[in-house]
């Protein structure tokens, strides 16, 4: 079948976006992999599918498929591209839309300058809800310079290639493991990332963040994404890193996050307040591809 698509990216995190709203569309995992293949297909970190919602009170349903064909819960950079896509294609003229995702509802707002603000919801730190298995582990306080303090995060030990890595575990609607490193550019992300991603203590696998603190309002970040490998940017990964850093007392809102693909701005007042992400969304090209059944 012939399939129309739009290629987009958010800070270098790239997507194939499909309209399943005007015409229902069902793809197999094999077809998703074919579309995402950078040599024989279009090429993308994830495939985004726009659909009609299945719950009341929202505008759209937003589904995300990794390049390995598996469906995942959330993608922050994709969410920004999502709202640009539905506006550019005339599916809505609203600047702010409510979107159904796998684990709830998010709000996306297009700014006058073209940037998109995403209400990412409240970070979740309870290990069982990430999910992360703490059975038999002893965590340690993850406070910042002020040391142990009320609300400070707990760091958990993970055995990785003969070394112990201490990580914060966070859910932003999808699971994340975040560790602070001295030099993110020199850190062995390609070696450690896949080991942590598929570690037995993360029953649904995990996105792995490596952050270098630049100042209390700035960090550098690399993320090894579950099912996609290292990407140029990861929106939920940026949110998880900032949330963990603020909770540990290492960062203060707002935080500028430098990724290899661009810059994101994350704001979080802590506690049960929603975390907000702002950043770019760009259309690369539109096209049509012949897809095998």
TrEMBL record:
Record keywords: Amino-acid biosynthesis, Cytoplasm, Isomerase, Lysine biosynthesis
Reaction(s) the record says it catalyses: (2S,6S)-2,6-diaminopimelate = meso-2,6-diaminopimelate
Protein residues bound to substrate: 13, 46, 66, 76-77, 174, 207, 225-226, 235-236
Annotated pathway: Amino-acid biosynthesis; L-lysine biosynthesis via DAP pathway; DL-2,6-diaminopimelate from LL-2,6-diaminopimelate: step 1/1
GO cellular component: cytosol
An example molecular function term from Gene Ontology annotations: diaminopimelate epimerase activity
UniProt KW Cytoplasm keyword: yes
Gene Ontology biological-process annotations: lysine biosynthetic process via diaminopimelate
A Pfam family per the record: DAP_epimerase
UniProt site (Could be important to modulate the pK values of the two catalytic cysteine residues): 176, 225
Active site residues according to the UniProt entry: 75 (proton donor), 75, 234 (proton acceptor)
Documented EC number(s): 5.1.1.7
Locations listed in the record: Cytoplasm
Complex and partners: Homodimer.
Function: Catalyzes the stereoinversion of LL-2,6-diaminopimelate (L,L-DAP) to meso-diaminopimelate (meso-DAP), a precursor of L-lysine and an essential component of the bacterial peptidoglycan.
HAMAP family listed in its UniProt record: DAP_epimerase
Family, as annotated: Belongs to the diaminopimelate epimerase family.
Protein name (record): Diaminopimelate epimerase
Organism this protein belongs to: Paraburkholderia humisilvae
């Amino acid at each position: 079948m012939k399939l129309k698509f739009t290629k987009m990216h958010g800070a270098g995190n790239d997507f194939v976006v499909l309209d399943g709203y005007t015409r229902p569309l069902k793809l197999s995992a094999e077809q998703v992999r074919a579309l995402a293949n950078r040599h024989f297909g279009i090429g993308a970190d994830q495939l985004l599918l726009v659909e009609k919602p299945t719950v009341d009170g929202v505008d759209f349903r937003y589904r995300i498929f990794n390049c390995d064909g598996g469906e995942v819960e959330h993608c922050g950079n994709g969410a920004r591209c999502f709202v640009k896509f539905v506006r550019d294609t005339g599916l809505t003229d609203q600047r702010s839309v409510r979107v159904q995702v796998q684990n709830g509802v998010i709000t996306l707002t297009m700014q006058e300058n073209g940037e998109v603000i995403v209400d990412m919801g409240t970070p979740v730190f309870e290990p069982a809800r990430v999910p992360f298995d703490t059975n038999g582990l002893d965590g340690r306080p993850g406070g910042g310079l002020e040391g142990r303090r009320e609300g400070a995060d707990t760091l958990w030990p993970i055995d990785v290639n003969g070394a112990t890595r201490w990580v914060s575990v966070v859910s932003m609607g999808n699971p994340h493991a975040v560790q602070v490193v001295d030099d993110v550019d020199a850190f062995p992300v390609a070696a450690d990332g896949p080991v942590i991603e598929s570690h037995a203590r993360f029953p649904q696998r995990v996105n792995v963040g490596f952050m270098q603190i630049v100042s209390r309002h700035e960090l550098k970040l690399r993320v090894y994404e579950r099912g996609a490998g290292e990407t140029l940017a990861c929106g939920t990964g940026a949110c998880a890193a900032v949330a963990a850093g603020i909770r540990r007392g290492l960062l203060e809102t707002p935080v500028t996050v430098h990724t290899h693909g661009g810059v994101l701005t994350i704001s979080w007042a802590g506690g049960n307040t929603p975390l907000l992400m702002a950043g770019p969304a760009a259309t690369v090209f539109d096209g049509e591809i012949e897809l095998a059944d």
